[in-house]
Amino acid sequence: MLLNIEISHSKALTPEKTDLKQKEEKLEIDQKDYETIDIDTEPITENFGVIAYEEFPFPTDNLFISFQNLKINYTIILPTPNGICPLKTKMFVFVPSRADGFYTRHMIRNSWGANLAERSIVLKFIVGWPQEQKVFELMQEELIKFDDLVVYDIDDSYRNLYLKVYVALQWQQIFCSTAQYILKTDDDTIVDFDRLLWWIDNDFGHRVSKYPAAVFGGMIKRSSPIRNEKHR
């Protein structure tokens, strides 16, 4: 298992109404990421956008993120039966994406992200909750047409990028648990799958047979932490 994740499912896989008026104070994740929150008594998931989930014509489920010092309830749009990974999935690829990043997603689908199913590769874009009505409407069309979005209702800010990655890995463990490999890449990156699969077959695969929990990537050595709060 790549990551030990706690999962909490709702009993009914249908949209649940969210009444924001029941909360006297809104809780921003960015301001509370240093606290431990008891999700059983104080769930903090809210619709950060202006669109309520009952208006979204897709089934949802409630999950939660759990770190040592942070616990967050959130809601996710459930995949269709065709959106779940096949049993023999070689690689699960996820791309963090902005809600309004339609053009970038379109370019990926028509370039390096095209015809991946033929290679037993599943590609998903991880998208936060839309803030504008027009984006909301276009996302519905996109989700119906391509079925490759993982949509959740956590504030889609740069500081919360680590939560987006967590959501992607949690989705993988629930709906794509048989994938042999997991690849995280960005929407400004080009993936050469011919070369990547060659390395898997001729190098990485042998390493994984000895170390099943192997992680491949670049390593930064002898680097000091960056203290500038504005640095990205």
From TrEMBL:
GO cellular component, one term: Golgi membrane
Main location: Golgi
Gene Ontology annotations of biological process type: protein O-linked glycosylation
Keywords, in A-Z order: Glycosyltransferase, Golgi apparatus, Membrane, Signal-anchor, Transferase, Transmembrane, Transmembrane helix
Cell location: Golgi apparatus membrane
Keyword Signal: no
E.C. number: 2.4.1.-
Keyword presence, Transcription regulation: no
Cross-referenced Gene3D superfamilies: 3.90.550.50
Membrane topology: Single-pass type II membrane protein
A single MF term (Gene Ontology): hexosyltransferase activity
Cited PANTHER family: BETA-1,3-GALACTOSYLTRANSFERASE 6, BETA-1,3-N-ACETYLGLUCOSAMINYLTRANSFERASE
UniProt record similarity statement: Belongs to the glycosyltransferase 31 family.
Name of this chain's protein: Hexosyltransferase
